[in-house]
Design a protein that fits this description.
67% helix, rod-shaped, 9 helices, 218 residues
């Protein structure tokens, strides 16, 4: 910054001797030179020093008053440093391509989540339809899409389990009811049935088990 001229060198030296943070002052000075240009900042430093005013905040306020953006074309040349590495201008990065990738990924996730939700809704609707719960199926089809993903997954998981349990219990109850209606003197399972009392039942045993159970271990 001192290389900008004697006024700037005097200004920096006064800042160094005072209680202000030199790092903060220099960083703000660099920013002001970038925005207003060297000549405007040097002129403002001279005016402030002549009035005994020190501090980059006061300098910035002076520049804003004297060179308002509505009246001044703030388009200075970039600051030139001694090191060429610091003078390199990096090309602008267009972040829209990364935004497109982000939203494309979001759309893919949303599409996969939607397919999963539709499949689960279909399975639940079929299960409730088998249980003759038509209005339940319609209500779930309307309400599940409105829920949060975590709530919907939890409800769908347990509701699917409850539907399977209800169907299994209903099937067992139906079998028990038919057995009671038949009024059997005793209930006999296939494993305990004697298929050898006739040729016909032996054929049935062979069709059921492949070979007579007397010749194989079950």
């Amino acid at each position: 910054m001192k290389s900008l001229g004697p006024k700037m060198a005097e200004y920096v030296e006064l800042v160094r001797q005072g209680p202000r943070s030199l790092k903060y002052e220099l960083s703000r000075l660099v920013a002001l030179v970038t925005v207003y240009g060297e000549s405007m900042v040097l002129g403002a430093c001279g005016e402030c020093l002549g009035s005994g005013i020190i501090g980059v905040d006061n300098l910035e306020l002076f520049l804003k008053r004297q060179h308002h953006p509505s009246n001044t074309n703030l388009n200075p040349e970039p600051i030139k440093f001694n090191s060429e590495k610091l003078n390199r201008v990096h090309p602008a990065v267009d972040l829209r391509r990364y935004d497109a990738l982000y939203f494309e990924g979001e759309n893919q996730v949303s599409a996969a989540r939607m397919r999963k939700m539709e499949t689960m809704n279909k399975l639940l609707a079929e299960g409730l339809s088998e249980l003759k719960l038509k209005h339940w199926s319609q209500a779930i089809h309307q309400d599940l899409p409105k829920m949060k993903d975590q709530d919907r997954d939890l409800i769908s998981k347990y509701l699917s389990q409850w539907i399977s349990i209800e169907k299994s219990e209903r099937h067992s109850s139906m079998i028990q009811s038919k057995i009671r209606t038949a009024k059997f003197r005793r209930v006999q399972t296939v494993e305990n049935f004697d298929f050898r009392h006739s040729k016909t039942t032996e054929k049935v045993e062979k069709n059921l088990f492949g070979t007579p159970r007397g010749y194989c271990q079950r």
